[in-house]
């Protein structure tokens, strides 16, 4: 069984950088499974910044909705980094996919992985209740998804100011 | 003196589920002190989902504003779960109650409890500053209330992705 | 070298109170370096509340943009408390300053301090993605700044309900 790690944190908490370091610690090259769609200029800019920061140690796989397949297709090739769960969820919601089914498929595939998987997610629930109903629904779904993934992975860390705070396992 | 525990966390961080488990660990049956008013369909739906998840181990007490009385009336009946402080505060603010007096009465009653009390609250201050002045005021009051309760309880845990992170006591 | 400590946390998480206690633990009197501009009545009110809570143990220095100079000018006078980085950043953005240059100057000066420096910052990235582009830009800049400061200080603590959670160094 490949080790599985979940890294959570707020925006710009340094979670992706921590996750990249953890992934490469399992071996090189690694595969970066990007869930981001390029929706607009701001997002495209972020992705470009992100890619410029990675070197030849990384292979890139773009998968906006079928994360189970992305895991299946890349198992056996070394460590994988999934970045990130909340963008994946957002893609599923915007595309009107069956979220429980997609989540179930992802978790089932995760349990079968022989190579390590590091997963990035976002803390989105620690602000004031959003006035927008869709934002509330997204926040709820993201929180539930985070809980389900955290329950099955080997380790959970929360990024705070770029530093990792261990949540699981307990000392 | 009954043990007192505060569980904080963002929306959908799993704090209520952790709090329910901690409450039942003190013995059964337990009393669920619900502060939620049923304001709208969304809230009613959440409460129903919540209640469906609880079984015969729980007695339900609904108290939207006088938490001191709810604690007093239920002491001697076993462990209590108060869910949650921020909805209580919201009820006090919407009903134009005397918040310092209500807080003082709650803390005084909490200090007198012989049976355990587990309290759920929300992290609402870790997002961007809200544009809405009422939301800012609520966020400030909630933060102050959380600090006052955390200062007097025996244990404080923060829920992260459904997992508890111990904040008090220090190891 | 003076010890350097970063205290982060959400709004009303008790971070300033924790930081004041940590600063005075290094000796008295201490210097409070306030970055807050008095933009409006609400802010003025907060500052007044804040100042009323401090006594003769504190000298006050107000510096809205040139934190490097404030550190340089006060080194040798005992411990300093910088409250807070996110207001400073907000002043820089509103005044259209060169943020990378100001950050670099601040970090360079911080590395030269002989007296202790305790720095307060804010977690602003754990809510839902703001709809406002300026708020998103601010959130990103604040997160990056927090990471850079956290990387160089001796200790990082996160305030949760008024209680400190140690993030750095690891046990």
TrEMBL record, chains A, B, C:
Catalysed reaction(s) here are: adenosylcob(III)inamide + ATP = adenosylcob(III)inamide phosphate + ADP + H(+); adenosylcob(III)inamide + GTP = adenosylcob(III)inamide phosphate + GDP + H(+); adenosylcob(III)inamide phosphate + GTP + H(+) = adenosylcob(III)inamide-GDP + diphosphate
Give binding positions for GTP: 9-16, 34-36, 62, 83
> Which pathway, metabolic or otherwise, does it act in?
Cofactor biosynthesis; adenosylcobalamin biosynthesis; adenosylcobalamin from cob(II)yrinate a,c-diamide: step 5/7; Cofactor biosynthesis; adenosylcobalamin biosynthesis; adenosylcobalamin from cob(II)yrinate a,c-diamide: step 6/7
ATP-binding recorded as keyword: yes
Q: Which residues form a coiled coil?
A: none
Catalytic positions are 50 (gmp-histidine intermediate)
CDD domains found in the cross-reference section = CobU
Keywords of the record, alphabetical order, are: ATP-binding, Cobalamin biosynthesis, GTP-binding, Kinase, Nucleotide-binding, Nucleotidyltransferase, Transferase
GO molecular function terms listed in the Swiss-Prot or TrEMBL record = adenosylcobinamide kinase activity; ATP binding; cobinamide phosphate guanylyltransferase activity; GTP binding
List its EC numbers. Answer: 2.7.1.156, 2.7.7.62
Q: Organism's domain of life?
A: Bacteria
The UniProt entry's GO biological process terms, in alphabetical order, are: cobalamin biosynthetic process
Task: Note whether Mitochondrion occurs among the keywords.
Answer: no
Function comment: Catalyzes ATP-dependent phosphorylation of adenosylcobinamide and addition of GMP to adenosylcobinamide phosphate.
- Family according to the record: Belongs to the CobU/CobP family.
Know the name of this protein? Answer: Bifunctional adenosylcobalamin biosynthesis protein
| Species in which this protein is naturally found | Salipiger marinus
């Amino acid at each position: 069984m490949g080790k599985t790690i979940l890294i959570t944190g707020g925006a710009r908490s340094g979670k992706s950088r921590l996750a990249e370091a953890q992934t490469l610690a399992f071996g090189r090259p690694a595969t970066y499974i990007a869930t981001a769609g390029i929706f607009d200029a701001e997002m495209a800019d972020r992705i470009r910044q992100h890619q410029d920061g990675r070197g030849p140690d990384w292979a890139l796989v773009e998968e906006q909705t079928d994360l189970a397949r992305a895991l299946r297709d890349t198992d056996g090739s070394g460590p994988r980094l999934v970045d990130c769960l909340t963008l994946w969820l957002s893609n599923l919601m915007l595309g009107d996919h069956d979220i429980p089914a997609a989540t179930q498929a992802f978790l089932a595939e995760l349990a079968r992985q022989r190579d390590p998987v590091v997963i990035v997610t976002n803390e989105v629930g620690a602000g004031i209740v959003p006035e927008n109903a869709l934002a509330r629904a997204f926040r709820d779904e993201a929180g539930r998804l985070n809980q389900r993934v955290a329950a099955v992975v080997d380790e959970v860390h929360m990024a705070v100011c770029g530093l990792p705070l261990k949540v699981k396992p307990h000392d």
